[in-house]
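Troubleshooting: if your tokenizer reports a length mismatch, compare your output against this known-good record of 128 residues.
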Amino acid sequence: MFGKLFLTMRIVRRRPQTAFTLLVLAVCSCATAHSLTHAQRIQSGAALYAEKGCAYCHGKQAQGTPKGPALTHLGWWRWRGSRIALQIENGGAKMPAFGDSLKPDEVADLVAWLRSHPHFRPAAPVAQ
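Known-good structure output:
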């Protein structure tokens, strides 16, 4: 680690233009990795939900099946995005862990889809 730091310091002192170029490249690569809009994350999450087998246990619209519970109770007021992500990554009860098979961006996309799902918003009271 210290070797890399020393090498970086030498580059900064001897070639500031090279150091600046490396900095710009690092920032650009980070920006492109996280440049999805929220709508794109939701769309990607919906596709991942179907592709990665979530729908097999939880149903096509997360309504639940005999194999897995409904996910409609994860509303804004009960489960935060970080808690949903931990459940996806670590599993629990009968749910297997998906932390090894999903990238962090994929987990974030699934969370975005789950939190945007229409069933997760509190329903308006029905007038009678």
